[in-house]
Design brief:
single chain; 59% helix; mainly alpha; DNA polymerase, domain 1; two-stranded antiparallel ribbon; 2 strands; hpI Integrase, Chain A; 267 residues; 2 domains
Length: 267
């Protein structure tokens, strides 16, 4: 039955990791309970809430609900738990640290990593999207990305970055193909980038909590809204399905809130 469930999910054009997660969730449930009924499902939900964060609990519940849909037991579907939204962004690299990191990488001759950081900060690319950038995209100034629903999102490469990147690639003799590679000539992995960024945070005395790939995507969004307050355009550039997802960037970071309170509250 699990194999059929997996096939059912794959036909819905879900990401491979999502399919694996949903199948694992159902397998885990079946290792604990013999059947799907209201009492067992509520017990499983409680067990999840004891051991996982709210986002993970809801992901597991989504997997169970998909299985109930697959087995025509929709009446047993569970409600997701409510996630308390924070009124601030956490662990976003500051502009000062971003500029410092770029400067250090460049002065130390680590040009590829200098451009890894710059591309993330100046394009808002997800790490998976960053790895798809080729010399041809740098030449034309953009990369078209295709979503599962057949939608096209254009990832723009700003002029100053584009011009400096072309000079770098030319000096390296790279005129086509992927621009970010590992020591063996293959495309570098997302994990490899994350690990290297942590190394640089230690090397340059930066907070490792803010030096990770998605932090630069957050930085791009905050800076964009700071200079051009068009949240609908930003949602398109970020590839968000809903503009509500983009609204988080209207909030300040916890550090910014603290600094403002320190400046304002003098009584």
């Amino acid at each position: 039955m699990l194999k059929k469930f997996q096939t059912f999910l794959e036909k819905q054009d879900l990401a491979r990791k999502t399919v694996e997660s949903y199948v694992w969730t159902v397998k885990r449930y079946l290792s604990l309970y013999e059947e799907f009924n209201k009492n067992n499902l509520l017990a499983y939900k409680g067990l999840l809430m004891e051991h996982y964060k709210p986002q993970t609990v809801n992901l597991r519940l989504q997997g169970i609900n998909k299985y109930l849909e697959f087995t025509k037991q929709e009446k047993l579907k569970m409600k997701f738990i409510r996630i308390q939204q924070k009124n601030f962004l956490e662990n976003v690299i500051s502009n000062a640290d971003y500029k410092f990191l770029k400067s250090q990488l460049k002065s130390d001759g680590l040009r590829e990593w200098y451009f890894v950081v710059w591309f993330m900060g100046a394009t808002g690319a997800r790490i998976s999207e960053l790895l798809k950038i080729k010399a041809e995209h740098v030449e034309v100034g953009y990369l078209d990305l295709y979503s599962k629903g057949g939608k096209i999102r254009r990832l723009y490469i700003p002029k100053r970055l584009r011009e400096e990147a072309k000079e770098w690639l030319s000096s390296e003799g790279v005129h086509s193909g992927y621009i970010f590679k590992n020591r063996y000539g293959g495309v570098i992995t997302a994990r490899g980038i994350a690990q290297q960024l942590k190394h640089f945070s230690t090397q340059y005395g930066l907070d490792p909590k803010v030096v990770y790939p998605h932090s630069f995507r957050h930085l791009f969004a905050k800076n964009f809204l700071g200079k051009y307050n068009d949240i609908a355009l930003l949602a398109d550039l970020m590839g968000h399905e809903s503009i509500e997802t983009t609204r988080i960037y209207l909030k300040r970071t916890a550090t910014e809130q603290q600094r403002l309170v320190d400046q304002i509250v003098t009584w």
